[in-house]
Amino acid sequence: MKAIAVYEDGDEPVVIEKPRPAPAPGEALVRTLRVGVDGTDHEVIAGGHGGRPDGEDHMVLGHEAVGVVEDPNDTPFEVGDVVVPTVRRPPNGANEYFARGEPDMAPDGEYHERGIVGAHGFMAEYFTSPAEFLVEIPPELAEWGFLVEPASITEKAIEHAFASRSAFHWEPDSALVLGNGSLGLLTVAMLDSDFDRIYCLGRRERPDPTVDVIESLGATYVNSNDTPVPAVPDAHEPVDFVYEATGYAPHAFESIEALAPNGVGALLGVPGDWEFEIEGGRLHRELVLHNKALVGSVNSGYEHFEAAVESLSGLSEAFLADLVTGVHPLDSFEAAFVDDDTTIKTAVEFAAYEER
Amino acid sequence: MKAIAVYEDGDEPVVIEKPRPAPAPGEALVRTLRVGVDGTDHEVIAGGHGGRPDGEDHMVLGHEAVGVVEDPNDTPFEVGDVVVPTVRRPPNGANEYFARGEPDMAPDGEYHERGIVGAHGFMAEYFTSPAEFLVEIPPELAEWGFLVEPASITEKAIEHAFASRSAFHWEPDSALVLGNGSLGLLTVAMLDSDFDRIYCLGRRERPDPTVDVIESLGATYVNSNDTPVPAVPDAHEPVDFVYEATGYAPHAFESIEALAPNGVGALLGVPGDWEFEIEGGRLHRELVLHNKALVGSVNSGYEHFEAAVESLSGLSEAFLADLVTGVHPLDSFEAAFVDDDTTIKTAVEFAAYEER
Q: Where is the Alcohol dehydrogenase-like N-terminal domain (chains A, B) (predicted)?
């Protein structure tokens, strides 16, 4: 079968030929439909992320997959079920985090991430997975199923951020999403049902397709060239919830200034090393005197995938069609890895979905 | 009656004569037993904190009080009940935060704090308070009742920090308290029942009475001159919970480095303005990749006072006697405001407790 991989000494993805995997006991064989591309894939390609699987000179890319069960292999699935795989796998048999259904809370060394660190990804015509790491989704979502994984990342971040406000009565009604990449835009759409007013900050000048998407969702675009994060309260309003998906480290700390009293910032970006000055006394004081919180969040668990399926089902086809600017077949997969100002979200299509 | 106040143009507390207050409907009259002194009182004296009550040229100090009901005035209390007053009061009748029993979550302008901002404190022979802001405590705790308020501050911080970890299975067993002041030491004692290993960081060299208290509690003293906060994981271990009570702003951010994966830092210090450099990229990344959180916490609500009474009841008399280095009668009250290396916690005694 064909797969898209990056080699040890390579700096771009290539199509390779691999044997079709055989499901082990407890695993199902899945025929891949589509696999999304995100910033983490670009980091993996650039070699800046985790390691390849042990003993391998290449890594199959892709962690945002959707497929159909080809061979249930005595798992509870049936042929044709549409499934999305979760990303983390226990590296050496089970551990307590996986046993609890919280692989996203496992520390370093207690997990592999398929397509990211230690395990091959899903960009292949077929993949196998233990049944417990496959989430069934409605057939109607088959085409958009590669968005379940990124949506699950947001579900987890929201769950943890809201939990941090659960010791008191909290009725948030304004949110600020930092970042107008695909995850930021998806999050704006997902927050729409819970927040009255949503702002999304980016550094693009109009005209820009992401600004169009933000406005089509009824949210307000904040151009950070005019309105940096600490200026949001004066330019608009202090917000109850900040969702940071930029990886721009000053934003993590500036978000404290954008928050209303009792607000919380969810941090999801993964920046490199960088030293810079902050108004540390004021930020510390703000956190304390106004009961603010910052909550970091990575990856997601099975229940977040289930919540994501629910959330995606509620999003309009029009929004999804705007968000996904390209789904490219395997023979022109390179187009899915182009990242320019007209690209929002892309995927590689390995097979078209056909209802059985 | 006599009261201890600081004048607009004064820089130290003085004893003044004021009329004994008459309880309004719904208020009880309380005879003051003892009132504790903490860092906030020193800030109020230095003029660096909130404002005096409207139209007043002085403010009566004190927010850590215990007293006995002298006149219940048709409230549910009885003469002789031992009570501790909460600190925040609604500035203009009730508001939603007070109505919910969460005055600690009220934003600026929605509260006064007795003895701190906008309202006279409790350092007087008598005070009045609406019954709903008086917490009855067991007579056995009468002598230590002035510790209920500071203990309530810790109860709230712990509640909020733990809430931030409630979305997953979290079993913390190590804690680091930043600050060996009276609140830090009280917190070490309060955490003792929940954590297997507790560290308390200060910058004092031995011999020092706070180090003795830390060690008598079975905790480990960390001298920040030898082991700064980011070095704690290597010198000891990464900790699940950090409690910051120093007001030293770099600690708020460095605490991220001291935390184990999935850990949380509760921030309580109130620093002044101060710009400094941080390893922002690494700290942001740490928060995200290891699911860490920072939770600011200020003040406390009625239920935190109740929890504090419970916690204080469980502490040993020996510890409390070590912690409280001086209880000074009104005629030598100045001694309660001395803050030197032999002082840990002090209080002014307005009347001795006599069981009725």
A: 25-138
Q: pLDDT under 70 in chain B at which residues?
A: 48-50, 356
Give how far Cα B16 sits from Cα of B85, B116, B176, Å.
Answer: 22, 18, 42
Predicted confidence (pLDDT) per residue in A25-71, tens digit = 999 999 999 999 999 999 999 986 668 999 999 999 999 999 999 99
Write the pLDDT tens digit of every residue in A71-120. Answer: 999 999 999 999 999 999 999 888 999 999 999 999 999 999 999 999 99
Task: Indicate whether B309 belongs to any domain.
Answer: no
Write down the pLDDT at residue A49: 65
Q: A111 vs chain B: nearest CA distance in angstroms?
A: 12
Residue A182 is assigned to a ligand binding site? yes
CA B348 to chain centre: 16
Helix axes B148-163, B302-313, angle to 10 degrees: 110
- Measured between beta carbons, the chain B residues lying within 8 angstroms of A276 are 277-278, 280
**For residue B356, what are its two tokens?**
């009725």
B42 and B96 share a domain? yes
Considering the domain boundaries, does residue A116 fall inside one?
yes
Residue B349 φ then ψ, to 5°: -100, 120
Length of chain B: 356
Residue B76: burial class (beta carbons within 10 Å; 0-12, 13-18, 19+): exposed
Instruction: Give the Cα-Cα-Cα angle A152, A349, A83 (nearest 5 degrees).
Output: 45
Rounded distance, CA B17 to CA B126, Å? Answer: 12
Whether A47 contacts A118, CB under 8 Å: no
Q: Are the CB atoms for A232 and A201 separated by under 8 Å?
A: yes
Tokens 């469980």 locate to: B314
Q: Output DSSP code: residue B208.
A: -
Going by the DSSP 8-state scheme, the letter that residue A91 receives in this structure is B
CB-CB under 8 Å, B167 with A262: no
* Among A167, A262, A272, beta carbon nearest to B159: A167
Strand partners, B114: B119
Indicate if B52 and B163 belong to the same structural domain. no
- Between CA A335 and CA A210 the distance in angstroms is 19
For residue A121, what is the domain's CATH number? Answer: 3.90.180.10
CB within 8 Å of chain B, chain A residues 164-183? 164-169
Residues linked to residue B129 through DSSP beta bridges, in sequence order: B28
Question: Both A161 and A278 in a single domain?
Answer: yes
Least confident of A8-12, A53-57, A289-293: A8-12
DSSP-assigned beta bridge partners for residue B93? B91
Q: Please check whether residue A144 lies inside any domain of the structure.
A: no
Letter for the amino acid at A233? P
Q: Which secondary structure element, helix H or strand E, spans residue A286, and what is its range?
A: helix A280-289
DSSP B333: G
Distance in Å, alpha carbon of A187 to nearest chain B alpha carbon: 17
**Which tokens is A254 given?**
């500036």
What ipTM does this complex have?
0.97
Q: Which residues from chain B sit within 8 angstroms of residue A280, using beta carbons?
A: 249-250, 252-253, 271, 274-276, 278
Q: Supply the range of the domain harboring residue B330.
A: 2-136+316-349
Tell me the three state secondary structure of residue A142: helix
